[in-house]
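I trust your eye. Have a critical look at both lines of this record:
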Amino acid sequence: MTIRATQFAALVITALALVPSAAHLAALSNKIGLPQAEYFTVQGIYRGWAILGLLWPAAIVLNGVLAYLARAQHGPFWLAIGAASCFILMLAIFLLWTLPANQATGNWTSVPDNWDTLRRQWEYSHAANAGIAFIALCLTALSVLSWRPNQP
């Protein structure tokens, strides 16, 4: 029963982690061309979203535990490892591109001279992470679906 509970938790957390990333991607085309004042106003809607970042480490841990529990089955094991790796990649993208843009703009409350470059960096790093989160969800789902009880 432990593996089924872990599969469920990994799937739910991975799906929940996709939601904010997909929301950023959905808004990109409407935001990317906004003038500076409007863009900074719109960015205010994300205040408080940092708590959602906890979903990524949770997804790494749960997919890692899922891989451990499914280690006897080659396919489910590697699919769960792939999902956990996606979230590690997402954290790297966040640390390299998203976080520096947030820091340079005081979380979009101050306007540096290169704000437009930072906007593109912020928007496209979120778009990349949305795609990676979707891949992670697919990998987790495939791991769950391909696991067979009582098989080595």
Residues 2-146 form one domain. The chain has five helices and no strands. The two ends are 16 Å apart (CA to CA).
